[in-house]
Amino acid sequence: MGAEMGWFLTELFTWWNGQTMGTRFYTWRKGEKVGTDEFGNTYYRAPDKSQTAGGFAERRWVIYSGYAEASAIPTGWHGWMHHRTDTPPSQQTYKPREWQKPHRPNPTGTPNAYRPKGSIVGADHRPRVTGDYDAWTP
């Protein structure tokens, strides 16, 4: 199977890896590119009120660079995507506030995942019961 056929099958059958064929077609027909963030995600809008839900003036979407992970959208673009601002970060000099943290990938399923005290896969052992718990025995 050639690289082109692999690209076609990936886009046809997976929604989590970039975009689907339907998204590609809709973007080609109605999409207006707004900008790209530092992760390579590309943002689009369709200023057609008949295509939107919730009465917004335009439909907005992102095509992820790689796997679709919503937490990989930077704070400025997040505000624009959720219609909290009408001006996208590509048209202004957006500077995150000091309390806004940069993106960190979700560590679930990796060795860096959070493992609370007493977890089966954690390094610590579960503390012994102090008498406030009686195990059920049949």
TrEMBL record:
<dbReference type="Pfam" id="PF05071">
    <property type="entry name" value="NDUFA12"/>
</dbReference>
<feature type="region of interest" description="Disordered">
    <location>
        <begin position="81"/>
        <end position="138"/>
    </location>
</feature>
<protein>
    <submittedName>
        <fullName>NADH:ubiquinone oxidoreductase subunit</fullName>
    </submittedName>
</protein>
<dbReference type="InterPro" id="IPR007763">
    <property type="entry name" value="NDUFA12"/>
</dbReference>
